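Thread title: Can someone regenerate the structure for this chain?

I was given the following input by a collaborator and told the matching structure tokens would be attached. They weren't. Posting the sequence so someone can regenerate them.
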Amino acid sequence: MDDNQQIKEAEIDLREVIAAVWAKMYLVILAAVIFGGLIYVFTKFFVTPMYTSNTKVYILNRTSQNSEIVNTADLNSSTYLTQDYLQLVTARPVMQEVIDELGLGMTTNRLAATISVTNPADTRYIVINVTHEDPAMAQAIADAVRVSSAEYITKIMAIQAVNTVEEADLPVSPSSPSVRRDTFLGAVLGAMLAVILIVIRFMLNDTIKDSEDVERYLGLSVLGVIPKEDDAMETSRSRKSRKRKAKRK
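Best answer:
Regenerated them for you:
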């Protein structure tokens, strides 16, 4: 019996919470609009657009230097060494050669931070992505990294060649930031914060609102209810109106 009563009270509390949020829904919508608008303005006018150019290479490590036929051992060896190739692409000698070639005013670590090297699953392709605020520079760096890393990998790993699958493309649209996505996330965050504040305020409000609250929280029986002044006046007017109608009849 006690468990059923607790479950019933929990359900009533949940309905009250939902009702409190629904009653303040205009605040939730207002918070979503304000936060979304702020994020939109910040992303649109204060965040520098970044462009990403990518190039793709294919590396096959031949186990037999005299054979032109690719066998299973060659494929397996290339797969095992893929992680080594990924690390060599952003090695310090490669980065320094790219900086010297393009005349970049940055350190090797900073240049490496603009580059991401990935290996698509179940492939021996290596994709080199370069992100820069200038799309033409992103393309130039990607191509320079591809050429320099190919020479470095060939030298270090003692393989015949690193084949170019795709040269770097010239990005036409920024890869970040995403104004639409960030604005949506800002609106969602604003709405969530508003809901949380409304729920917290509701939970902390321990004032007695009606006779049901007296019975629920204090465990006391209500013998009578004193109406508000407005309600009393309205009741009195209603009674007088009914008496007048009865006399007319």
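Confidence is low (pLDDT under 50) at residues 5-12, 63-67.
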